[in-house]
TrEMBL record, chains A, B:
The gene is pfp. The active site is at D201 (proton acceptor). The record marks K198 as: Important for catalytic activity. It comes from Ancylomarina subtilis. Diphosphate binds at G77. One of its GO terms (molecular function) is metal ion binding. Mg(2+) binds at D171. This is Pyrophosphate--fructose 6-phosphate 1-phosphotransferase.
């Protein structure tokens, strides 16, 4: 494998650990925990893993336990830092006992089912320290959700003498980790399960998990690009750039990038949903800002758009649901030849409200809603080019607006894959390494059904606190795909939280003025304030928290 | 203006100058020059600026001349480093004589015509050192090409006591700079004109200009993103990523990024043109590689596509020309309702050869060719989504290929605006600063009709050689828009050059294996091999040159 000069230099980086973990540690056991909601139901579903105490590690006596054979699984979409979770896990296991072994299951949860794994030895782990991607063992999206599968996993673990699993994933995968932990405990098979909080979307966080790993790096990559584009916009002075960003279930990425780059407009889906804003209303608001800037001679700007936007607009959500039904029940639609005929057939079948929305959509978007369907016959929302839709509709709106004297030319962008596998920032490199390290300590302490956590991450790493939180503590009941299930609560953008409030207090100024910030590329070797800063979201959240109450575990 | 931590840290960077420029310099005059071709005609067109000698600067006696009032113009598309050309120019002017002044014309050549400028003093220049973008004074694409305009420029310069202009631009703008220099000399108005070689596309280079500025940085940004996407492809193992890159007239960017990242496929337009490859042939070749990788279980990959590809395919070029004529002469086309009818009308009017090509195109692409037309009725080639076209056609091809057992899912990307205004790499920061510095020295030496150059740029900056090359020396006659004009020869990818040959020798291996390199983001503070390396293209070109003959001026 040929390595770039940066890869070579970066492979020498030694991630910072919380000071409390640098020597041997002892376990501090806190109070028994409760789930965030639906306590009775969650307790009934997880009799063996409910109510466990929060635990933290502090410098102390080192207690060597049995020899640990640990399997690690990367689950779901890639996030920067996954390889450092593995290197932290590896280093801690070897520090605890040289005979401890780490195995990596190949291709995500499938590896557990197929008994497909490799031994992760020093050579392999060294090759991947501080690199991006999940390519060391690959990832996958398979869900292990029936007893036959649980038993298969047990069989494979026992066959290979594996006594603990570390599952690195988002809210779904960690919920799944807890289900496995519960089942293993019920069956008394002696296999522990520890989770690690991963997702660039940033929507796996709560009182215990300050941030999910990868969010910091991905947002830094996107912000680099947004900054570059803003510099271009402000130099050429002739384009509006509509930039869609990953984040289907929540808009943390858009909010973080907005705080970092100060664009003219950033849409936050959670706000759209709360105030039931229609597409037309959003288009109108963008058009107003375009006009205002045009009046000052500034025919350029930037708009950040979260990927999941259309699903947060109640009217579009309703329209999509109706379209799914109509197209399933009217196969004659596909025989019609002209667009006009097709739209007429659909319009007739829609409710009055949805028909109105539908008639306001440009042809291209209307087609995306009716053409691209997944195997279940549903609209593939992720394929909807919201950024182009907004450009088309704003163009249309301004063309009809005789008071608009400016120019409106737009470019569209979508950033997602550019950031998911970036090499981790120092923050994510340190954070992930510490999470992996902590996961090993939790296993060594005999814990199961826990998620590794690192707190105080807005401060420098010497003050970080490491520990474990019972996964059941983060759960509530939610209806998903028609069933009520115990799941980890997704963290949407808190419209009363400091990050959003700061954004809201400034966005009017950002809209009319050109207040762009240019963050530039992630740096690894420079001054601390350039290389080590955590996300704006984290800093602002902690700022408000510090005002309310001191951070304790 | 709020600055990011990196902007603040980076503003302290002191660009490296060629050692020969660090103290006072004297001018070394070389032999009289000749143009690269059409010597007689170019000489007739440029009687006052033809045949001037190549000049270089060496340590020596400092000769103070008259007080210099210099105007600088940024022309055409943005390129990283423009601000450093200005800071180099400023610092050299002030070093020569504290009374020298620098003025920046606003919004490109328009500023010269409108007499719109600002004084660039220390405060302003300091604000923009080592930053990306052209926003210090803006840029523009206006061409100054008739005598009335030349006279307007003279009037404005004389009015403001400006005795020299520095024009920062690509081949067109520098040709224009030379036309102005010639006219000013003919009119004996005492206004000098010096050019600087700018373009991220890398197609302004020759024996004297080793590289155009901005190319290095832009390619590094694109390569960062391609590397990240490749890491994602290799982790998720489920997508082929089709990545279009800027570069309409030449494929240097695609070639450089390929050398940096080792993708599975990189298309070089110049090769397509030379071997008259059709779209179908290209699609067939991509499909073959997809199949080969699928047979090894690798249903993922990357394809780099230069923006100008379709214009290099003779058959598509011919088709586009015919379509332009047909649509201009058959307005009834626009009254037809169905796609089928439209395609039938066009097919009938096309030549047999073009009809065959047209019938092979997917609907979406056929529509782009016939719908989006510029004000002159021509297809807007830059809006053609070649990356999507190739995905559609490869999908189609594989669907019909019963021997294909793999999966083919693709994502498309286009990178352009992400890199044009990035903050310059150390190479571009140093190179641009030195170019600006040299431009001031050329003015001080009384030169006009020259382009500033820096040679030996593949070596460390202490060995760089600074000088000026007569712009006429790079000219030949070409037919452009129906007229034969003197222009600076565009440098296409040399199919016999070392960069392409190295690429060609490796691409078979890159296609079937997964040989990705992950360059990561531009670094400013780390080890030299990470921060200071010039482009692969430059290194490989110089490598072959060194084998043939030593570099001399």
């Amino acid at each position: 494998m040929i390595k770039s000069p940066l890869q070579k230099a970066r492979s020498q980086y030694i991630p910072k650990l919380p000071q409390s973990l640098e020597e041997s540690v002892s376990l501090i056991t806190g109070e028994a925990s409760e789930s965030v909601a639906d306590q009775k139901a969650i307790k009934d579903m997880f009799p063996h893993t409910y109510g466990l105490p929060l635990v933290t590690f502090a410098p102390g006596e080192f207690s060597e336990n049995q020899i640990l054979n640990v399997g690690v699984v990367l689950s779901g979409g890639q996030a920067p830092g996954g390889h450092n979770v593995i290197s932290g896990l590896f280093d801690a296991l070897k520090k605890l006992n040289k005979k401890n072994q780490l195995y990596g299951f190949i291709g995500g949860p499938d590896g557990l089912l197929n008994n497909s794994f490799i031994e992760l030895d020093e050579d392999i782990v060294d090759e991947y320290r501080n690199t991006g991607g999940f390519d060391i063992i690959g990832s996958g999206r398979t869900k292990i959700e029936d007893e036959a599968s649980y038993d298969l996993v047990i069989g494979n673990c026992l066959k290979n003498d594996i006594n603990a699993l570390v599952i690195v994933g988002g809210d779904d995968s960690n919920t799944n980790a807890c289900v496995l932990a519960e089942y293993f405990k019920e069956k008394n098979v002696g296999i522990q399960v520890i989770g690690c909080p991963k997702t660039i979307d940033g929507d796996l966080k709560n009182d215990f998990i300050e941030t999910s790993f990868g969010f910091d790096t991905a947002c830094k990559v996107y912000s680099e690009l947004i900054g570059n584009i803003q510099r271009d916009a402000n130099s050429a002075k002739k384009y509006w750039h509509f930039i869609k960003l990953m984040g289907r279930s929540a808009s943390h990425i858009s909010l973080e990038c907005a705080l970092k780059t100060q664009p003219n407009i950033a849409i936050i889906s959670e706000e759209i949903e709360k105030y039931k804003l229609t597409l037309n209303k959003i288009v109108g608001q963008i058009a107003e800002i375009v006009k205002k800037r045009a009046n000052k001679g500034e025919n350029f700007g930037t708009v950040l758009i979260p990927e999941g936007l259309v699903e947060f607009m109640p009217s579009i959500k309703k329209l999509i649901a109706e379209l799914n039904d109509i197209l399933a029940s009217k196969p004659e639609y596909y025989l019609l030849k002209t667009n006009q005929e097709k739209r007429a057939l659909i319009t007739e079948a829609l409710s009055e409200e949805s028909a109105k929305v539908y008639s306001s959509l440009p042809d291209s978007f209307a087609k995306q809603l009716t053409f691209d369907r997944d195997p279940h016959g549903n609209v593939q929302v992720s394929k909807i080019e919201t950024e182009k839709l907004l450009i088309d509709m704003v163009t249309d709106r301004l063309a009809k607006d005789q008071s608009f004297q400016g120019k409106f030319n737009a470019q569209n962008h979508f950033f997602g894959y550019e950031g998911r596998c970036a090499a981790p920032s120092n923050f994510d490199a340190d954070y992930c390494y510490s999470l992996g390290y902590t996961a090993a300590l939790l296993i060594n302490a005999g814990k199961t059904g826990y998620m590794a956590f690192i707190k105080n991450t807005a401060q420098s790493s010497e003050n970080w606190i490491a520990g474990g939180v019972p996964i059941t503590m983060m759960m509530n009941l939610e209806r998903r795909n028609g069933y009520v299930k115990p799941v980890i609560q997704k963290a949407l953008v808190d419209l009363k939280g400091n990050p959003f409030l700061v954004f809201r207090s400034k966005r009017k100024e950002w809209a009319s003025n050109t207040s762009y910030i240019y963050p530039g590329p992630i740096q690894y070797f420079g001054p601390g304030e350039v290389c080590d800063a955590p996300s704006e979201t984290l800093l602002l959240e902690k700022e408000s928290l510090l005002q309310e109450e001191p951070v304790t575990v």
